Amino acid sequence: MLDQISSPTLLLNEQICRNNLKKMADKAKRNGMKLVPHFKTAQSQQIGEWAKEYGIREITVSSIKMAEYFCGQGWDNIHIAFPFNPRETKKINDLAKDQSLSVQLINVAVTEKLAMELENPLGFFIEIDAGYGRTGVAVTDFELIEGIMRMAIKTDKLKFKGFYIHAGHSYYEKDIEKLYDETRAALNMLKNKYRSEYPELVTRTGDTPGCSVIEDFGDIDEMGPGNFVFYDLMQVNLGSCKREDIAVALAVPVVDIHLGRKEILVHGGGVHLAKDVLTEPDGSKNFGEVVFLNENGWEIPSERSFLKSISQEHGLIKASDELLAKVKVGDLLGILPIHSCMTADCMGAYLSLNGQIVDHVEGH
Amino acid sequence: MLDQISSPTLLLNEQICRNNLKKMADKAKRNGMKLVPHFKTAQSQQIGEWAKEYGIREITVSSIKMAEYFCGQGWDNIHIAFPFNPRETKKINDLAKDQSLSVQLINVAVTEKLAMELENPLGFFIEIDAGYGRTGVAVTDFELIEGIMRMAIKTDKLKFKGFYIHAGHSYYEKDIEKLYDETRAALNMLKNKYRSEYPELVTRTGDTPGCSVIEDFGDIDEMGPGNFVFYDLMQVNLGSCKREDIAVALAVPVVDIHLGRKEILVHGGGVHLAKDVLTEPDGSKNFGEVVFLNENGWEIPSERSFLKSISQEHGLIKASDELLAKVKVGDLLGILPIHSCMTADCMGAYLSLNGQIVDHVEGH
């Protein structure tokens, strides 16, 4: 399989990916929750088929374009976890003809446009901002919540499904348990407040660090993590997983070795990995870590080596003595990504360990 | 033209792009230099055709895949400005059948592989590291330079063209004049040292900040800047250009407005813009700046507004009062990119101001 690779190629270890899917599906089941994984990470119909084997019937995506890619694949529902963009009303009308879809609403203006122009049934969640500050209705802004609800009932096409929180500050906050106390409390309060009016409403949370680490989800009904299908070094850093759980590695050709500086130059840069970065304890930057590739996948070296800098196509590895002793020009190395969602999006396809291309949404 | 846009779309202002091409072509001519623009930025056959109108006959690219995209388009030569990756020897043999190509060599191992396996003529530059430390032979490492030369003459297929310096530290160094003193001196020294043996050797330099700012290139023969065709905010910051010279802007739909926080949420994130970032004087991050779109292109507001944070698909604008007074949900805003090469690579296509799709290399 490695012989067929001449340029940067994203390797996918199916077994690790399936383990990650199974583990999260088991956890959801254990907690009586529905798992609706976020496919902004994998963006793959093939990986969708694997997910179905673990009882997954619905998925989440982050754009209409991505929803379109998964339409007609037998999903019970596709949830577009993004504040609905009113310029795409025509597209949602087209897609919703043949596929059960839901969106997120956070203001009255967009709800009104949908209420007036929707031609087919469409579910919606109200997205709640539980303090992350990126998007969503403030958890105590009942006026806005009820404004959206009142506007939605002007049409029989919009169906309120419940409340969604993306606790995205779990990526910054070290105390995920404390954060989940707030998430649980917020969703519980909203459910109690509105369930007499909407007896079928559900609550959903969606971040990988939380879904990986937390054991007690209280009465939250659904989870929608995305990154867990592959994981990455950012998640290792957050404590969501181990390096061994990372399911993708970028194979990069070695083009030069500088023994004096202990540096290795590879073909693999920002257009392949994206530019997400971690900071090492000594302040140096880490754009991805080296693994040794073999025909069965990859092996994590005992001494760490990492990409200390990248430009558009170049990557410069700060190399351990172990790596320098092994490597020669023309070899392939593997790079575990910092942020696998972005790396997969840059690469636009995967190569499985048995040499098969695995699909990914193309373009944006 | 704006009516047809419903999701993030990269707008290209042909007139600004042509002005940038013309200005650099004029500057090269004024200095008696050959301009060999680096198409890792535009990655477009159409923009290649525009370049030809300004007398450009050769281009630079950063990978074999990109070279392949431009083969058969009538270029006198395509230079692959990347240390040659020996795993791609078969590909270079295939491409070099019908297209004049050149590569960069920085070590003996790869030169030896080419000397043994090349089937068609191939030019090469020796890339010199003038202190940037990313890649290249140290300027005084004559042993390595001559090692490469000696290995290359073992075949009649490899033709030494000269020395190439990418003075990439012009992106970090404020004193570009001083830097160019070193670049000029290094290339001049190498030319004098080897031109009795290689009378046709040329010297080439390649960074946009240097090529934009410097007026005296000494006896450097060729220039290969890339970013100048579009420019971007990083280049504005470096003093290479003005905001008005930026030829691309990402059109993004407004999905929510938070008057209290003076924030605007748009559909436009890391998968569209890439994650290159500038730091504002107050320490906040800037992932791109807002312009007002109109049917003739865009207008730079008198008060700055910028993307203070982005995630995979979300962008959060810190908005001026001027912007807040004008904007409503469902509008389109333009975002000038921090690093246009990366944004164009993420988007994979352009929309011209008259509504035509302009091509870009797909995938990696």
Any idea what the shape of chain A is? Answer: elongated
Oligomer: homodimer
Major beta-sheet overview of chain A: 10 strands, mixed
Strand content of chain A: 25-35%
CATH architecture of the largest domain in chain A: Alpha-Beta Barrel
Given helix and strand content, the structural type of chain A is: alpha/beta
Number of helices of chain A: 12
Describe this protein's structure:
The structure is a homodimer of 364-residue chains. Chain A has twelve helices and 21 strands. In chain A, helix 5 packs parallel to helix 6. The mean pLDDT of chain A is 95. In chain A, the strands form three sheets. In chain A, strands 1, 11, 12, 15, 16, 17, 18, 19, 20 and 21 form a ten-stranded mixed beta sheet that branches. In chain A, strands 2, 3, 4, 5, 6, 7, 8, 9 and 10 form a nine-stranded parallel beta sheet that branches. In chain A, strands 13-14 form a two-stranded antiparallel ribbon. Chain A is elongated. In chain A, helix 3 links the parallel strand 3 and strand 4 (77-83). Chain A is α/β, with parallel strands linked by helices. Chain A folds into two domains: 2-10 and 242-358, D-serine dehydratase-like domain (Lyase, Ornithine Decarboxylase, Chain A, domain 1, Beta Barrel); 31-229, TIM Barrel, CATH 3.20.20. At the A-B interface, helix 5, strand 11, helix 10 and helix 12 of A face helix 5, strand 11, helix 10 and helix 12 of B.
